[in-house]
Amino acid sequence: MNNSNQTITVETTVKAPISKAWQGFTEPQHIMNWSFASEDWHTPEAENDLRVGGKFRTKMAAKDGSMAFDFEGEYTDVINLKKIEYVMGDGRRVSISFEDLGDGVKVSETFDPENTHPVEFQKAGWQAIMDNFKKYTETL
């Protein structure tokens, strides 16, 4: 399966001030509360050096201990309250934009798919994480 010629975009609108949405998305103590695709997974560790050349690492793990992996990358562009771009360890690129709508924030994340899983599966997983981000951030 070769998904190299396309990108996938997921998005949500968070009913919160842009500063709160940015904090929720970028601060490790918040990331650990939403960065998982299903309720049987969690994020026990998160590190984030949010600057160009800075690195991040988020440990995603099954709650039953059967599986875990590190999601990590290096930032290539950071514009406070507007945009985050990074490259993952396998070379795939991700771009996240934050658009202040006045009564909320539209967060869009576009990424290069990997070649193991179908595009729809990847989109569903990343959208589930984005939905968790929205739910968590709106209760901050």
TrEMBL record:
InterPro entries to which the protein is assigned, alphabetical: ASHA1/2-like_C, START-like_dom_sf
Pfam families given in the database record: AHSA1 (PF08327)
Activator of Hsp90 ATPase homologue 1/2-like C-terminal domain mapped to chain residues: 15-137
SUPFAM superfamilies tied to this protein: Bet v1-like
TM annotation in the entry: none
Family statement drawn from the similarity comment of this UniProt entry: Belongs to the AHA1 family.
The protein, known as: Polyketide cyclase
